[in-house]
Amino acid sequence: MAGLWNRLYTGTTTVDFYGKRKIGFIFSAVLVVITLGSLFARGINLGIDFTGGIAWEVKQAGELTVDTAREVLEANKIEASNAKIQTVDSGDAARIRIQVEDQTEQVAAAVKKGLAEKASLDVNEVSQSSVSSTWGRSITEKAAWALLWFFLLVTAFIVWQFEFKMAVGALAAVVHDIIISVGVYSLSGFEMTPATVVAFLTILGYSLYDTIVVFDRVRENTEMYSGSKVSYGDIVNVSMNQVLMRSLNTSVSALLPVVSLLVLGSLVMGAVALQEFAIALLVGLATGAYSSIYIATPILGVLKERETKFAALKGQMSRGADMARMIARGATTTTRTRPTSTSTEKSAPEHSSVTESLVDASVILSHPPRPRKKRQR
Question: Going from the N-terminus, what domains does the chain have, and what CATH number goes with each?
Answer without folding.
Answer: 8-46+134-308 (1.20.1640.10), 53-131 (3.30.70.3220)
